[in-house]
Here is the input.
Amino acid sequence: MASPTPIHEITLKTHRLLLRPYRDEDLRDVFGLRSNPKVMFWTKPEAEESQSREYLEARMGEGRWWSFVVHLLPTEPVGAIEDSSLEPPTTSSKFIGICGGHRLPEIGYLFDPAVWGKGYATEAVEGFIKAYWDTFPDGFPGLEGEDKDFLMAVTDKDNFGSVTVLKRNGFEYWKEKEEDDELTGGKVRLTVRRVWRPGKG
Here is the structure.
């Protein structure tokens, strides 16, 4: 029997998208995304490529990460979890964003403004949630207590696009939290939503 695929080498497919692990060669795309003021409107855009390299290297290492770059498939494959040794579908597949767990059970996502409004963020989050509970039915390794039983996301209350994505994927209001605002130097109140594992909540 073949050994199971290491968790940081798993690739996901949805109807229109390929979610695969980060690679060194993703630096240019990741920096292009994370330095875009429209994408980073609710936080501080990255000014130096070295910042995106640090971000990339963290997600390629061990820790409470299970994150992916998102490519738009030129065809419409049937959804499945596959080994990341899978070759990219064709050279015409397009990088459109990033999605996944960071500081799990927290998740996050960023998408190229050129593809906003097409449902890709909703589809990517939906695919991630399903794969997460299929892969980690008892919660991500290292999580304890109730943290094993839900995924959460933090948004500005006025980030209506992101709130819509979360609501469509079953995230419900949980609480508010206060954090330092990188843009103003003051404080900002953020909304926390969460979705329970199937059969819980």
Observations:
- Strands lie at 10-13, 17-20, 65-72, 80-83, 94-102, 107-111, 150-156, 172-180, 187-196.
- Residues 69 and 98 are 4 Å apart (CA to CA).
- The longest helix spans residues 120-135.
- The chain has four helices and nine strands.
